Amino acid sequence: MRSWPSPEIPVLPVQGPPVALHDTATGTLVTTRPEGAARMYVCGITPYDATHLGHAATYLGFDLLNRAWRNAGHEVRYVQNVTDVDDPLLERATKVKVDWVELAERETELFRQDMTALRVLAPDHYIGAVESIPLVVSLIERLQEVGAIYRVEDDLYMSVTADPAFGAESRLDRDTMLRLFPERGGDPDRPGKKDPLDCVVWRGERPGEPSWPSPFGPGRPGWHVECTAIALEYLGAAFDVQGGGSDLIFPHHEMCAGHAQVAEPGTAFAKVYAHAGMVGYDGEKMSKSRGNLVFVSALRNSDVDPMAIRLALLRHHYRADWEWTDAELWDAVDTIADWRRALALGAGAPAAPVVTEVLTALASDLDAPRAIAAVDAWVRATLGTDGLAENSDPDAAVTMLALLDAALGLSL
């Protein structure tokens, strides 16, 4: 599947520190130590609707990680999927009377445009569920060989008990898992399952639904096994970071880890599991079912500067849950204008300490609010609010423009 064009990233005069992230599986801050290229998998969209600000906040959060690694001197190998066949997509296509393939292609293209406008670095491999079916079939066959797969009517399930480490990624107790599982696509009450938490890996053909041939009969992949197969193929086991929204901690990332760890015994799926917070609007998490979505494309089409959208999102720590307001956007528009005025002066307050502070902040669990505060302080000093230092830096604007772009993805 085609990705989107990545912007050029300036090379900074100094190297950033090692990057530490909060690891969901341990609840601690873990310093990433890539061996060779830093390897990251971030779960992508199910393209049945346009990119909303909750999506954008997640992908901007992991874009900061991509940039922080690069500024620390690492190459990055980044993989993202597109679940271009799944129940929500098929249901939406039926409801609006549009071919599901056409709907998936249209919304995926809109997502590409949104990511391009927000200057998110593109994945090296952007893989759709449909094109990954041979990888999924191969992975299911490996799981069958170790006795982890069983059949319920025309569907195949994986036994969660096959993974001795099941539950280690989410650290949830069984009662909580049983409560969340049906809310997030699971079917704990289906007769014939060995365990209510077992998840489908191959969904047998249903009337009116797309299907593909396989050794197990016609059907299509389950959601969790799709991401697992793609990650193992393009990154290998024990890659550096598995990322996504916090709503994916369970069951999605737990199940992905289980599939991989049964297929690759003794090897963790990922070294760190990092999760972005949820963005709300009108008092609830943004979601299609609640009808409270704010779309990136709608803001762009109303002539809002994409850099203001990006700044408004980056003012919140990537792990925080928070609520979007129009006031935040307009404040970001004003802030961008102030920053551009300061940069237009050429000379300014010394930039070197700001470079150090910004790179240090982002290396400490991607602390964008702290980094932005450092830039704000430089702008105030340069514009005179705090008094421009006597030893003004004649090259401050050049340095700051490169820093904003390389570290925060803001092209001003």
Give a description of the structure.
- The chain has 412 residues and is an alpha/beta fold.
- The chain has a domain at 20-281: HUPs (Rossmann fold).
- Helix content is 42%, strand content 15%.
- The protein contains 13 helices and 14 strands.
- It has helices spanning 53-71, 87-96, 100-117, 133-145, 174-183, 223-234, 249-263, 296-301, 306-314, 326-344, 352-363, 368-383, 396-408; strands spanning 20-23, 28-31, 38-42, 76-82, 125-128, 149-152, 155-158, 199-204, 219-221, 239-245, 270-276, 279-281, 284-285, 322-323.
- The strands form 4 sheets. It has a 5-stranded parallel β-sheet with strand order 5-4-3-10-11, sandwiched between helices.
- Helix 10 packs across helix 12 (368-383) and helix 11 runs antiparallel to helix 12.
- The radius of gyration is 22 Å and the shape is globular.
- The mean pLDDT is 95.
